């Protein structure tokens, strides 16, 4: 017998309410689903992430751990209660000003934890801020801007300072910021409008490798009154296949008799939410025949059976870049160094689990869900449903972090099929374990690399092979295999290069896109070699890198001549004073140290090609003008927290010649915006930004030509329209004489940009990217020699971004990338089936990210919008190798098994004694 | 008043929230219940599925709240939260317990998680357990037929196993007043700063004679065996000495049986335990 829902009276944000719910229902669910207060976010339902932090009688708690029965008669405060009478709370204003909200999914929790603190401690120290916010995880910001915002809010000032305004180059407050700090932004799980709608839950494999047969599913369904349908592979209307590459569609929506990974979906239960949640997977009539799993070792040994017929030997694909004669040059090099490293699966750990709904509308389908790539989703769903792409509409919600993990389809095919088959709207929200277990990861890599230099420290040759565990399905494995060889020697002049890669199938979770596509793993290897060669020569590690750094007019290993925007030398020179001072400080500390703590300073360089590797990846944007002067940017570029919404508006405003706040934004709906490609490969600012710029120029040209104004005329928004001032002439074009299109626009500017690249030949020769980002970072660490623990004490990051369209957002990307780099270096290791939650899978907390100094280098890229390149992935790449260099400086031990968890580092320290 | 209806119907079986211990133990006698206090272990064990246990919510039992000094020592009500522990006015004997209280999850967990729930959940990584062992604490259990007290070492039996009968309720933890002035300490090791589940942890309490030497010591190590363990050989050797980390020997770890898991290897746990024990003893000086 189930207990009836009971009335519970309590106070929410100062209002008496009565909520009717079962007493054991989580307060988070009551707030969201009963009271409609979607500002409280759910990230894990286990008290691990703190996204659902609310105040109960003034004290911060995880609403997911509080049964509503326990709040009767008490006062609950949520993010919706922070702003009063339309006026933002001081914390909210400070978060906006500092860029402390990126994707915004953790923001309500952070704000409530901070509100709790400021009531107890009106003037807190930084340590008190860290303690108070230590229970809320953030994956985007790197926390430092959050700390700054809380301290500023506490010490006054934020409310009275107007946000800065301006176009390119200014610290414009993010255009979607108010929605994020007030909890009104709508993420995947918030977008679902009807609680009565059908819910879908996938039934998943308990084995990494198995054959299976269904029993009588129809009979089972009939025994469950709330169950409307059980969907299997037989219910897929079109192709039961998806995947990133047209030739690599190898992943079934529902497995067909065989599963290749733990958690693979075999069927889906569709019905009322309670029913589908209550059915255990093991109750569904499925007979399993487990098969031996295929590990990375098994697959590399070649002894395992093939998982896919198109991948003999379980080799999905190979990559290669070669120039000169690396073998001969290495054999004769005066100094050589070698390294072998092994990295782990890394989970994206965005705080928003996948969520969304699908609705069949006539002979079309609409999918509202979190995604990084609406147009690719559209085309894939069309194939799966067997309908033309035009009949699929993808409406992206706000995305609570992506980092590459929301490029692949997750729940979209299942809800699409369910809505298609049942004719009713169907929703699905992944649980945290489901999200971690079934979505892509960073590729585990085994890299062996060797480099040689002459007596003066000039690099002569570099050779490297990397095997990448791409898991059960291809996903972005080919991208990693092709991108890594281009970058694997690092941003250095090397005349002789041979780099090979292989993407290897196993029965592990698929590895896909994750901030850097294999380049962060490769950087760990090449930077270890730079340190080793510098040490061998007795050269300073920074000066060695500077000697070899790529410069203007240098030629890369692919034969590409770098004509413009090669700012690595400027990065290293900017870092040099910090490097010398920090090295000296650390060495002085160690000389006087008696206990087990030793400090070290490391440096690492990176480069990163912006956009797809040797493939067309165009973006298109439109800027519309209504008769009343309203300007609308239609942007298909999905903002996953990095700030592309703001950047696109800034660029379009600058190009069109108005202030950014005059531009309205329509984003990411495939029915209303053009294809701006995927939010990936650090391409949105460079590629889509260019499209936005061109759209702005096009609309400006059209508008000015109406009144025969000169090209430097000013466009002035005025009530009801636009004025144009050209010298001493002021004109008001009559826009009402034009017919309006479906959007109501009378003039539409169009922009398209596809970065110029060429295909690569068998030796990887060609122009894989139109431009590259460069950067270098310094890490100061302290290692406890007796425990093997590492604390990062400080980071200094110099990045050549071409042009910082919005310096606050650029810093935010760098901070966040560094935080993820710290995780990659020191703690993050996903082991399929063992740590699919956020208490066993560790990501950095607010106490793990040290103060970060950002030095922006702007070596303008002529192809980029106003000189800009990209920074999303570049931010992360140098961090882990800088930390490993620092650990070696502190301990004499070079970490080769990554992450450098305390047990591994301690073992390495002991082995070196 | 805003009246809002839920469309979700019921979930979970019975839910009782008694206000007296008598009602609570009567319910436990009548049928099997899962006891709910702060919910910080109960809900994480039910991710993605409805709570279909019969729940006995004891959060309304005011008699189980509070931390108080008694004639014999101190009584910690089972519903005392970690926040209650770290904000309580307690002597240096409890320095370790209070330090642990500040490191159980984040503040959200410290505001909700209870000392009683931490004991009854009996995780090998429970931060409370080694501290209670070092404090020589006993638990007080009541049922409809009476009450009993058990030393914590006899209460926590294994991974998620305790000596609590299904008809019993843990209502308090009692800490005896030491014969001499005493100090405690706690060392917790994890791979990140906050939200740490211990790789290994050490709680230590020493009582000091008038001459500053150790009159008695209790050292307990958690997360290095199924249940936190005291180290009797070390405790004996410390008596009569000043706190000296160098007295710690590898053989002192004999009661431990660490395992390899996602957090660390067994060998590392032994090694790190030695370091933490030495640091804990140094803390006591």
How would you briefly describe this protein structure?
In chain A, 28% of the residues lie in helices and 24% in strands.
Walk me through this protein's architecture:
The complex is a heterodimer of chains A (913) and B (285). With 913 residues, chain A is of the alpha+beta class. Helices cover 28% and strands 24% of the residues of chain A. Chain A has a 7-stranded mixed sheet with strand order 8-10-6-18-15-16-17, with helices on both faces. The longest helix of chain A is centred in the middle third of the chain and has 25 residues, at 568-592. Chain B has 9 helices and 15 strands. Chain B folds into 3 domains: 15-57; 66-176, Uridine Diphospho-n-acetylenolpyruvylglucosamine Reductase, domain 3 (2-Layer Sandwich); 182-284, CO dehydrogenase flavoprotein, C-terminal domain (Enolase-like, domain 1). In chain B, the strands form 4 sheets. Chain B has a 5-stranded antiparallel sheet. Chain B has helices at 21-30, 82-87, 95-101, 107-110, 115-121, 128-134, 152-155, 232-238, 266-284; strands spanning 2-4, 15-16, 34-36, 55-57, 67-69, 73-77, 138-143, 146-151, 156-158, 161-162, 169-176, 182-189, 200-208, 214-222, 229-230. Chain B is globular and about 55 Å long. At the A-B interface, strand 2, helix 1, strand 4, helix 4 and helix 8 of A face strand 1, helix 4 and helix 9 of B.
